[in-house]
Design goal:
Rossmann fold; 7 strands; alpha/beta
Length: 254
């Protein structure tokens, strides 16, 4: 399968974890990659340096994806340097509370919903004109298996990502005639991510229970998720849209 060689991909939240793995993989397939970050400038520059050392092309751009003006400025910088964004991988993690509904405030639940959708709305709006003009585009959102299978304390994340999944389906229906596909990659638990390092919530015993419930016998690595994202981003993948790919080693099967 060929990648999106020669295309430009914007990967939000790409300074570490799934975003960084995705940026490296897309770059290795010939895509020019924009490594977006919020606060982790040195880490983002390290990702860029690694890509360039391997012969790829990348640039780091700071922007809070929840801020429309910041997103527009970022996309304008990309346009000036490389032309428009052909592939959007929206991976940026929007903070959220981990607690039961009974202990949660509306600001915590509603705030997560608002920020999640506001970010997806802003980044998608910003890249659509170029994709529509050329009649080709790939939009990939990062979801979660928690959208369909609840887990204690994760109501804010699961509800917000469920909204994002349905948003993606509506966009897929609307944008298909323009040659733009819209899909979701929904990982299960992933090693080496910020969420995995929340030891006050996910201790070793909890992790071992997750591994035991996974037929493939381990949790996902960021590179596993990046492979699914890169598939959706590819030139050859022209007839899948409105779908959700579960990357969970068989922990949950629909």
């Amino acid at each position: 399968m060929t990648g999106a060689a020669g295309r430009v991909a914007l990967v939000t939240g790409a300074s570490s974890g799934i975003g960084a793995a995705t940026a490296r993989l897309l770059a290795s397939r010939g895509t020019r990659v924009v490594v977006n970050y919020l606060r982790s400038g040195p880490a983002a520059e390290e990702v860029v340096a690694g890509i360039e050392a391997a012969g790829g092309r990348a640039m780091a751009v700071q922007a809070d994806v929840r801020e429309v003006s910041a997103v527009e400025d970022m996309v304008e910088r990309v346009r000036a340097a490389w032309g428009g964004v052909d592939v959007l991988v929206h991976n940026a993690l929007i903070p959220y509370a981990v607690k039961p509904f009974q202990d949660m405030t509306w600001e915590e639940l509603g705030g997560k919903l608002d920020a999640e959708m506001h970010a997806a709305f802003a980044v998608t709006k910003a890249v659509l004109p170029h994709m529509s003009e050329q009649g080709w585009g790939r939009v990939i959102y990062l979801g979660t298996g928690l959208s369909r299978r609840p887990r204690q304390g994760m109501i804010a994340l699961g509800t917000a990502k469920a909204a994002l999944e349905q948003f993606a389906r509506y966009l897929a229906e609307e944008l298909g005639p323009r040659g733009i596909t819209v899909n979701v990659v929904a990982p299960g638990p992933v090693e080496d991510t910020r969420m995995a390092r929340m030891t006050d919530v996910f201790d070793d015993a909890y992790k071992q229970r997750q591994v035991a419930a996974t037929p493939l016998g381990r949790l996902a690595h960021p590179a596993d998720v990046a492979q699914a994202i890169a598939f959706y981003a590819g030139e050859d993948n022209s007839f899948m849209t409105g779908t959700t790919a579960a990357v969970n080693g068989g922990m949950a099967m629909d």
